[in-house]
Amino acid sequence: MSDSLFLQRYDAERLVETRVRGDRSEASEIPTPREYLALPTGLPARLARAFAALLRVFAYGLWLCPLLLVPKALLNWVDPLLSDGVLIGFVLWILGFFSSLSGLVLMRLLGGARDELRSAPILPDSKRLPPGAGVAALPPGSDLNQWQTRIGQPARLRGTVIAGAPRGDLAVARDLALQAETHVERLVWTTEFRIESDAGLLELEFESAPVLLAPRQAVSPAEWFPRLTAHTRILPPASVELRAAPADATLCGISDGDTVDVRGVLGRVTEEEVAAAGASGYRATAGEKRRLLVMRSELGAPVVLERIAGRSHHHGNH
To answer: Which end of the chain is more exposed for a tag (fewer CB within 10 A), N or C?
Structure first.
């Protein structure tokens, strides 16, 4: 895993990500994940969503109402009162539909011109984790076969970040974010690292930006944008706004030596001979057989890295 740069821009409707590696750039687009959106919390907004949910239920039922003609006709031969009961149920269903519609319209009017069903884009946080974030890993003593049965499923591990090579800057991943009223921009930089856990060595493959959960601090985009893009030959054209943002952005990061909680989909599990520390930069013994777990961060299913604790002497780098 070499240095990678990801620029995400999303609003209430869609998320566009541009991935940059060296002189190669590519973009993808998906509907904005629910974890990146916050619903309005006002009473009219909540009531509007409740009426909208009821309206959908009654609307689906109306499609099935023609099927009531069969039991009504049959019951008419058995007991006319039961047949009339089917008709009364149909009328009540219609009343429920129009009552929900009226309630929805009323709540939208009370809420003003703002779309009460429209979510606001926000930065991901620990309360809105991507799918599978709460699934626990197997016990540390589980063998290779037990882990391989979990391939393709969400897993959760805790371990220590090990940088791939000595660097003056201890950071291995940073997230520079600008949150506007209608959209959010994130510039995520990652470099080579692994995570030492009780289950084995964890390797991350970043096909899309991970979610970094760590304390954020206000920074100047004019200072940090060039620092994160210093080793990139090309820049995403959509990054102009973040680079020239007049307002302060926020920055968080993961560094060598940090204890992190990792959530993601388990891609593969193998055993391999770990190289000597001098060969790759990872602190390991030459010839040592270790279990290697791999998680891939993909658009729509990102890996989540939450910093639990860090080195006391470099907290300022976050």
So the answer is: N
| pTM score of the predicted model | 0.69
Distance, CA of 74 to CA of 86 (rounded, Å): 11
Which residues make beta-bridge pairs with 271?
291
Q: Backbone phi, then psi, for 78, in 5-degree steps?
A: -85, -55
- pLDDT digits over 275-301, tens only? 544 444 555 555 567 788 899 999 888
What is the tens place of the pLDDT at every residue in 9-33?
998 889 999 888 767 788 899 998 8
Using alpha carbons only, give the angle 233, 236, 242 rounded to the nearest 5 degrees: 115
**Range 68-72 contact pairs with CB under 8 angstroms and sequence separation of 24 or more:** none
| Contacts (Cβ under 8 Å, ≥6 apart) of 279 | 286
Helices (H), 188-297: 221-228, 240-243, 277-280
In 68-150, beta strands by DSSP E: 120-121
3-state secondary structure of 286: coil
**Rg (the chain; Cα; Å):** 26
Percent of the chain predicted with pLDDT > 70:
71
State pLDDT tens for residues 122-147. 887 766 665 444 456 666 667 777 77
CB 19 within 8 A of CB 26: yes
